[in-house]
Specification:
338 residues, alpha/beta, Nucleotidyltransferase, domain 5, 2 domains, 6-stranded mixed β-sheet
Length: 338
């Protein structure tokens, strides 16, 4: 039996998967991360409640993973494979990056799990890329061909931001006046989106609504306020233009990843931000920015782009990774995967 864990900055999801090729859990529960001092206490409580004794554990970590150690970016947690293995008596424990988890989930997503942004011309067995704006900006890739299954998260979201027009050039200059370095994560992850709002208000002169400012004054996380007022009954122009700029920069960076990987298998947009607005935006600005690659513009139209709608994709990816990489049991897929 496999214990799969998805550690996020605000919640941890745990599930138990029996032996075999199916990924149907026999037990599953979500925990509020801030209520616990470390992951071990959550695992102890979960296993006590279920009465099960899994033999293996695979843990997806929203943070840097190296040499059996994972540092959770938005929690004061350091997770060690050896510590978990010894305390709970697992035969093996493996930590993986959360984007590795998302990449691993792609072959088992289908139908309502996905939304098409650009049809493209998918090619089987080709590289696949993932860009996932959430609390951070995750990126990764998946290789799957002829029995090879290799998902890998990376830290591409921390790469240098590259402006593509005059407005974004002004944004770059404005940001450099506030910090020494500008990455894509500093603009299109959740905590970075207010930077776009402030730029459009302060540097571009788009007026701010008093009620939006009042809500800002009573919260430490301005991003949900921006998203709410962008699509309210009486939408805020500044908030809506913030979302438009967010999607344009996201589209440009997704296109960058497609070019660098030659991702003829497709590009997938993950994370928790974009699914919340998927039914409220056209994605025209995203597609235009994605395709605007000069001599490669025609090629860009051939890359399929899908949005991951399934909220537990990372947890399923942890389970698939644990099954196939740790235990060596192939997971049954339900669709022909490109």
């Amino acid at each position: 039996m496999l214990l799969a864990v998805d550690i996020g900055g605000t919640k941890c999801e745990l599930a138990l998967f029996p032996s075999g090729s199916s990924l149907t859990p026999v037990a599953r529960k979500r925990f509020a991360s801030a209520d616990y001092p470390d992951l071990e206490e959550i695992v102890a409580e979960f296993l006590s409640e279920t009465g099960e004794k899994p033999t293996h554990a695979c843990v997806g970590v929203a943070g840097v993973v190296s040499d059996g150690c994972g540092r959770v970016t938005n929690l004061p947690w350091i997770v060690h494979e050896e510590t978990i293995q010894q305390r709970f008596g697992f035969q093996a424990v493996q930590l993986i990056n959360d984007l590795t988890s998302v990449c691993a989930s792609l072959p088992i997503l289908e139908g309502a799990d996905l939304m098409e942004i650009q049809a493209g011309q998918p090619q089987a067995g080709q590289l696949i890329g993932v860009v996932a704006p959430g609390t951070g900006l995750g990126e990764g890739l998946l290789v799957q061909k002829d029995g090879l299954f290799f998902p890998r998260g990376c830290e591409g979201g921390h790469a240098d931001f590259a402006p593509v027009d005059e407005l974004q050039t002004e944004l770059m200059k404005w940001m450099l006046g506030r910090r020494q370095r500008v990455s894509y994560e500093s603009l299109i992850a959740g905590p970075g989106i207010p930077n776009l709002y402030d730029f459009l208000h302060e540097q571009q002169g788009i007026p701010e609504l008093a009620e939006v400012r009042q809500e800002f004054d009573s919260t430490t996380d301005r991003t949900p306020v921006i998203f709410h007022h962008a699509f309210s009954e009486h939408p805020c122009l500044l908030c809506r233009q913030t979302i438009d700029l967010f999607l344009e920069i996201l589209g440009a960076e997704a296109g960058n990843l497609a070019l660098k990987l030659y991702a003829r298998g497709g590009i997938y947009i993950g994370g928790g931000i974009v699914p919340r607005i998927a039914d409220k935006v056209s994605f025209d600005g995203f597609r235009q920015a994605f395709q605007a690659k000069g001599k490669m513009a025609e090629l860009m139209e051939t890359f399929p782009v899908q949005l991951i709608l399934r909220k537990d994709a990372a947890l399923l990816g942890v389970a698939k990774y644990g099954r196939e990489i740790m235990i060596g049991t192939p997971v049954r897929t339900t669709r022909h995967f490109h």
